[in-house]
Amino acid sequence: QLNGGATFVIFGASGDLARKKTFPALFRLYKNNLLPKSSSILGYARSHLDHDAFLERVVEHIGKDEDKKTIDGFTKLCTYLSGQYDEDESFKKLDQVISKSEDERGMKSGQKNRIFYMALPPSVFLDVAKECHKLALASDEKSVNRVVIEKPFGKDSESCGELLKNLRPLFSENETYRIDHYLGKEMVKNIMPYRFSNTLFSPVWNSTHIDSVQITMKEPFGTEGRGGYFDEYGIVRDVMQNHLLQIMSLIAMERPIGRDAEAIRDEKVKVLRCVKPIELKDVLIGQYVGNGENPGYLDDKTVPKGSLCATYAAMVLWIDNERWDGVPFILKAGKALDKAKVEVRVQYKKVPGSLYGGVSRNETVMRVQPNEVIYNKFNNKTPGLTEHPMVTEMNLTYKERFKNLQIPDAYESLILDVMRGDHSNFVRDDELDAAWRIFTPVLHKIEQDRIKPEPYKYGTRGPEQEARFVQRYGVEQLTEG
Ligand code: BG6
Asked: Which residues form the Glucose-6-phosphate dehydrogenase C-terminal domain (predicted)?
C-alpha cells in the first residue's frame, strides 16, 4: 500500500491509450474514492497543449453522464507538461513540477510516491525509462517509485530479451508493472476462482475429459488509421502472444501454492514452458479485403503497399505435460470480423456409450466480452412426453445474476493493483520470455518465407478455411449459445 498519496506521471498523455483508457480509469477510481485524495496526475507528452486543451481531451472520454462536480474535482488533480522524451532539460523541469506539487500537497518524506505510467511507442520507451530512473534515484528515499509499462514488449525473443536487459538496471522487477490489460478483465480474473474453488469442475479439467480448448478474440473493426503500428506487429504480436496466451496460461496452469503474485506467476511460467514452439502446419493466417462498404486492410493509407501482414490468425498450441498431452489449444484472433467477441470454449470428450445415441458433447463457455457469461452446455431430458435428451445450458449471465453491479474496466482494476503493490495481474519477465519462445520461430518462418495470408471479406467470420482448420483438431461446431 502507498503511504499518503501518489503522483501519477502519464507519459504519452496526449495519445489514444492514455485518453481512452488511463485517464478514464483514474477518473473512476477517483469517483469511487479509491484514489487517495492527495494524489496528483501529471500528463506528459511532446504535443504542445495548454492546460485547458489538455483537460478537454481528458474529459472527452470520461462519459457524458458523469456529474460536473465529480469531473471538476478530478480535473483539479490533473496538470499537463509538454516536453521531449530524450532531453535532460525536459525531465529536470518535470522533476521540478512534481516536487512543487508534492510540497503544495504537504507530502512528507515517505509520502512522495511516484508512479510512472508509460503509454508510449517503443521507439522512445527506453529513453523515458532512463530518465525516470534518474528521477527515481534523486527522489525521496523513503517513498516508492513504480513504473507501469504498456506493450509491445519487443517483437520476438531477441528484441524482448534486449529490452529486458536494458530495463533491468533501471527498475527492479518489484518496481515494474507490465500491463496486459486482459488480466484486468472480470472474466479473466474469474478463471482461477472458477477452476480452483469448485470441486465440481476441477476433476474434469484435463485431457481425460477435455478434447479441445478454443480461445477466440473477434473484433468487428479494421485497423482504421492505426495501420502504421499494426503493420509492424500483425495480429499475432498485437493480441495473441499476449492477451490470448495469458488467458490460456490461466486455463492450463496447475493450482498455485498460494494466491500471492509469485506463486501464481510461477505456475503460469511453468505451463508456458511446457508449450511447444508453434509449427507452421498448425497455423492459418488471413488478411481482410474490402466488402464494398468498408475498405480492405491494404486500402488503409497507413499500411505499406502489398503488405503480407496477418490481420487474422488461428494457431494451435500443444502443452507437453501430463494434464494436457494431446489437447489442442486453438487460439484465434482477427480484425474486421463479423462481431465483437472474446471467449474461451472448452469442449469435452464425446459422451461414451450409446444409451442416448447422438447426444451433444458438453462444453464450458466463458465469454470475456461483451456481456460476461459462463455457461455449461449439458444434456437434459426434453420436458414432456419424450425420453430423449436435448442440449441446454446452465447459464450464468452476469447482467442478470448480479443486477446493479458495475463491472470495473480492466484498467481501473489494474491501476488499483499498482497502487496496492499487487503484481498478480502483471506479466513477469520470465513469462514474457516463455511467451516469445513459443511464437518467435513460427513468426520468423512466416516472414522469411513470405507466406501469403488468406483473404477474407471485412465483416465475415474470417478466412473460409477456418472451419476445416478447426475440424482437423476434432472441434465440433455445436449450436451457439
Ligand atoms: C490491444 C490491441 O492490446 O487490445 C488492439 O493493441 C486491440 O489492437 C485491443 O483492439 C483490444 O482490447 P479490448 O479491451 O478492446 O478487447
From this structure: 193-474
Q: Is the Cβ atom of 238 under 6 angstroms away from ligand 1? A: yes
Residue 71 CA to residue 323 CA, distance in Å, equals 51
Helices (H) and strands (E) in the chain, counts: 16, 15
ipTM, 2 dp: 0.97
Is 219 near ligand 1, meaning CB less than 6 Å away?
A: yes
Q: How far apart are CA 460 and CA 465, in angstroms?
A: 12
CA of 179 to the centre of ligand 1 (A): 12
180 CB near ligand 1 (under 6 Å): no
Question: In angstroms, what is the span from residue 10 Cα to ligand 1's centroid?
Answer: 19
Distance, in Å, from the CA atom of 9 to the CA atom of 343, rounded to the nearest integer, reads: 34
Q: What is the pLDDT of residues 296-354, one digit of tens each?
A: 999 999 999 999 999 999 999 999 999 999 999 999 999 999 999 999 999 999 999 88
Contacts of 360 (CB under 8 A, 6+ apart): 377, 379, 391, 478, 479
* Residue bearing the CA closest to ligand 1, atom 10: 219
- Integer Cα distance of 125 and 335 in angstroms: 26
Q: Which cell is 474 given?
A: 476434432
Confidence (pTM):
0.96
Query: CA 146, CA 30: separation in Å to the nearest integer?
Result: 19
| Ligand 1 atom nearest residue 369's Cα | 16
Q: How many residues does this entry show for the chain?
A: 481
Catalytic residue list: 243
What is the C-alpha to C-alpha distance for residues 360 and 350, in angstroms, rounded to an integer?
Answer: 8
Q: What is the pLDDT of residues 22-56, one digit of tens each?
A: 999 999 999 999 998 789 999 999 999 888 999 98
